[in-house]
Each structure stands twice: as structure tokens, then as C-alpha cells.
Amino acid sequence: MEKTLIVFKPDAVQRGIVGEVLTRFERAGLKIVGTKMLQPDYDHFYQHYEGIGTLKSRKGDEIFESQLASMQEGPVIAMVLEGVEAVETVRKMVGDTEPKKAAPGTIRGDYAHVTYGQAASIGRGVANIIHASADSDEAQKEINHWFSDSELHDYSAVHEKFTQPGKKA
Ligand code: CDP
Ligand code: MG
């Protein structure tokens, strides 16, 4: 099974929609193997968004600094989800980075509508509810950055009999 990192951003926590969004992942059969609420500092997000995510290199200083400031506006909830090809499945459910472009039915498409241009015009990072690892390499690095081994749990979900050999009802 593959693991991926999701982070409910301050806009999701402050809007009180964490439970609703999380239900979508549980309904799809993804298993929560780690979770915590925290308010990381600039350096933590620097490593997350540039050291691992290369956002500053890709999008420039202005977008990068706006995004880091927006992420520090309140607590976030980080989780590690596990499942079959979890990274790709979760990204599909999350949708396009820009909510305006994100398809209906995706989390960003259903819960937000803002654009890159509007966010930049007010000096904010695009409020798009949730972070999700983009690929398996990023997932591995992000999980190590956000969670220690002892914070990740190993247990059987009842529906794993459908996805794993040797598991019985
Ligand atoms: O989050 P995702 O992997 O879809 O996109 P990214 O390119 O890795 O960018 C990380 C985050 O930076 C986005 O989710 C947005 O919150 C923010 N961002 C932004 O505010 N304006 C942009 N033009 C690009 C990204
Ligand atoms: Mg990314």
C-alpha cells in the first residue's frame, strides 16, 4: 500500500469543513494512518514548499512569500492516508491547483472558486482548502518532514480484504 500526505490548510480549518472533506477520503476507502493539528513556522513551510515542493523556484518570490504567510494564518491539520496508489487517487480527488479550473466533484472545485489573479492582487496564496503530495517521491519526503515514525500507525481496516491477499472477513 502507498502512503500520501494531506494538509488541511488554514482556510479549511477556519471554514469548519475539515470533517466534510475528510469523509470523502474515508468513503473512498483511504485509511488514516497519522494525524495531528499544528501551527508550523516559516522554516517548516519553507522546507515543505521549496526544499521539497520547489514552489519558489517554479513561481517566484512573490507568490512563494504570499503562500507561506497564508499558511501561517492559523493551525493546519496534517494527515497521512494509505491505500492503493494513494498519491494519484488523492490528487485526483483534490483537483487542479487553481480552484477556478478545478472540476466540479473535486475538493478544490466544490469548495472554492478563487483565481490566481485575484489571490495575487490581494497578496494572498490561493486558498484551495488542502495540500496533497504530487508524486510518490514528494509524498515520501513530505511524510518524513511532517511525521516521525512513531506518529504513524499500523492497523487493519475492515475493507482491506478487498485489496490485500490473505485478509479474510
Ligand atoms: O498545491 P499544488 O501541488 O496543487 O500546487 P503547487 O504548484 O505545488 O503550489 C503550492 C500552493 O501554492 C498551491 O496549492 C497554492 O495554494 C499556492 N499557489 C499560489 O498561491 N499561486 C500560484 N500561482 C501557485 C500556487
Ligand atoms: Mg505541489
Can you characterise this structure?
The chain is 44% helix and 15% strand. It is α+β, with helices and mostly antiparallel strands. The chain has a single domain (2-162), classed as Alpha-Beta Plaits, CATH 3.30.70. The protein has a four-stranded antiparallel β-sheet. Helix 3 (42-52) packs across helix 5 (61-71). It is globular. The two termini are 19 Å apart. It binds cytidine-5'-diphosphate and magnesium ion. Magnesium ion (MG) is lined by residues 53, 134.
Task: Fill in the keyword field for this structure.
alpha+beta; Alpha-Beta Plaits; single chain; globular; binds cytidine-5'-diphosphate; 169 residues; binds magnesium ion
Q: What distance lies between the first and last C-alpha atoms, to the nearest angstrom?
A: 19 Å
How many beta-strand segments? Answer: 4
Q: Sketch the topology as an H/E string, one letter per element.
A: EHHEHHHEHHHEH
Instruction: Please compute the radius of gyration using only Cα atoms.
Output: 16 Å
Main sheet: strands, sense, barrel? 4 strands, antiparallel
Tally of contiguous helical segments: 9
The CATH class label is: Alpha Beta
Oligomer: single chain
* Low-confidence spans: none
> How are strands sequenced across the largest beta sheet?
2-3-1-4
State the CATH architecture: 2-Layer Sandwich
The CATH homologous superfamily is termed: Nucleoside diphosphate kinase-like domain
Overall number of structural domains: 1
- What is the average of the pLDDT values? 96
Q: Can you tell me the overall shape?
A: globular
By CATH, the topology is Alpha-Beta Plaits
Say which molecules are bound, naming each kind only once: cytidine-5'-diphosphate, magnesium ion
> Structural class given helices, strands, pairing?
alpha+beta
Q: Helical content, roughly?
A: 40-55%
Approximate strand percentage: 15-25%
